[in-house]
UniProtKB/TrEMBL annotation:
<dbReference type="GO" id="GO:0005615">
    <property type="term" value="C:extracellular space"/>
</dbReference>
<protein>
    <submittedName>
        <fullName>Beta-Ig-H3/fasciclin</fullName>
    </submittedName>
</protein>
<dbReference type="InterPro" id="IPR050904">
    <property type="entry name" value="Adhesion/Biosynth-related"/>
</dbReference>
<dbReference type="Pfam" id="PF02469">
    <property type="entry name" value="Fasciclin"/>
</dbReference>
<feature type="domain" description="FAS1">
    <location>
        <begin position="17"/>
        <end position="161"/>
    </location>
</feature>
<dbReference type="InterPro" id="IPR036378">
    <property type="entry name" value="FAS1_dom_sf"/>
</dbReference>
<dbReference type="InterPro" id="IPR000782">
    <property type="entry name" value="FAS1_domain"/>
</dbReference>
Length: 165
């Protein structure tokens, strides 16, 4: 059996043979994201075949939101809003960093990505780093790229991106 090429995220090895949810639950940097995915009933979706490209905000990224935002989003009555926020971090398809870079270069420095939520993320580069902007002008940096999953790829980001309100 071939040894799996793992990437370390949040102190845990991310296995390409496991799906997005199976890997994310082991990252201590993504406990907020996992709690949110569970509260939004998106475990099944993100465990499905995909493929998906997930821009996964860290706990620190969620902590940068205004005080009380996460707690409010996790309330059962705000499930629809939470789903919209989370689906805004997901793009259908398997876009590795190299694919994003190619798209950015082909599109004159900015590539638009349609999210599963229906909104648009704009990918761009500064030096060798890839960034994404949401429709509100917020910018997130990809801090760990190409965390391969059985059903897509995760790119860890340092901010939460939000759909147009």
């Amino acid at each position: 059996m071939m040894e799996e090429k793992t990437v370390m995220v949040g102190g845990a090895a991310m296995y390409p043979s496991k799906n997005i949810v199976e890997n994310a639950v082991n990252s201590k940097d993504h406990t907020t994201l996992v709690a949110a995915v569970k509260a939004a009933d998106l475990v099944e979706v993100l465990s499905s075949k995909g493929p998906f490209t997930v821009f996964a905000p860290t706990n620190d990224a969620f902590a940068k939101l205004p005080e009380g935002t996460v707690e409010t989003l996790l309330k059962p009555e705000n499930k629809t809003t939470l789903q919209a926020v989370l689906k805004y971090h997901v793009v259908a398809g398997d876009y590795k960093a190299a694919d994003l870079v190619k798209m950015i270069k082909k599109m004159d420095g900015k590539a638009e990505l349609k999210t599963v939520a229906g909104g648009t993320l704009t990918a761009w580069m500064k030096g060798k780093d890839v960034y994404i902007n949401d429709e509100n002008g917020n910018t997130a940096k990809v801090t760990i790229a190409n965390v391969n999953q059985s059903n897509g790829v995760i790119h860890v980001i340092d901010k939460v991106v939000l759909p147009k309100s």
